[in-house]
Amino acid sequence: MVNPPLEPLEYTIGRAMGRGLLIIVGLYLLATALEGWSVGNAIYNAKTNPFAGMASAIAGREATEHFAISQMQVPPIVTVSPTFWLALRLTE
Q1: Using CA atoms, how far apart are residues 31 and 91, in angstroms rounded to an integer?
Q2: How much is the average pLDDT of 75-86?
Q3: Which of 20, 34, 37, 64 has the smallest set of CB atoms within 10 Å of its CB?
Q4: pTM listed for this prediction
């Protein structure tokens, strides 16, 4: 039985680093989506109060979102993610 030739070590290391990078990016997108859902859920629950709902309607969606983000102290590295805003807008 003949063994197939081995791949050079550079290819193996490069492939492993690529997979690791993809895993890190995927986890980042998942974590920011969960944070967006959390902020959106908090806004939704706050709007059940009639006074908060009226204030939110007067201020507008963007102002309400930025107020909630600042109150929940969401780090800027989270708010730059598109999945954060997607989850936030879909949850509201």
Answers
A1: 15
A2: 94
A3: 20
A4: 0.78
